[in-house]
Amino acid sequence: MTLEIPDNAVVPLKNSNAINRPYVLGHGTLECRDIAETRRFYEEFLGLETVRHAAPAFAFRLGLKFHVFCVEVGDKIHDVSFLTHWGLDVRSREEVDAAYRSAHEYKDHYKIRQITETTLQHGVYSFYLQDLDYNWWEFQYYEGFQDEDIFDFGDRF
């Protein structure tokens, strides 16, 4: 079963006073130590689609027309904060629990550095793991489409 992406996945720019008016956030970038090892983890464990487009980099995506470049930097890799993480949405709490179990099962195989406990916080049931490149990933279940709710609720503070 595939979760359907809402027909209204594209949203209009609401900041009409912006100096620049890009139409979509198209990509991001992160670092990896070794392309082959990281790409295998992304494809086999995280379930991401990857394509190697350059000698020192590959791109990955999942579900939307938004991609992230992963650039090989070798031993110059930077540790990142737990708050700087990438979210992977799953369809149920049971899928979060299954991902949690598989993270522990494959921790040594994929060189996963850390795994947090599952928790329910701010309406999201999730856990985090830190990969071999110090990047943090959150496997989460949220009832609905979180992006819609966050922006529909508007500013709170």
Fold and architecture overview:
With 157 residues, the chain is of the alpha+beta class. The chain has a single domain (27-149), classed as 2,3-Dihydroxybiphenyl 1,2-Dioxygenase, domain 1, CATH 3.10.180. Helices cover 21% and strands 29% of the residues. It has 3 helices and 9 strands; from the N terminus they run βαββββαββββα. Strands 5, 6, 7, 8 and 9 form a 5-stranded mixed beta sheet that branches. A 4-stranded mixed beta sheet has the order 1-4-3-2, with helices on one face. β7 and β8 form a beta hairpin. It is globular and about 45 Å long. The chain starts with 26 loop residues before the first strand and ends with a helix.
In short, what is this structure?
The chain has helices at residues 35-46, 93-105, 146-153; strands spanning 27-32, 49-54, 57-61, 67-72, 85-89, 114-115, 119-121, 124-130, 136-141.
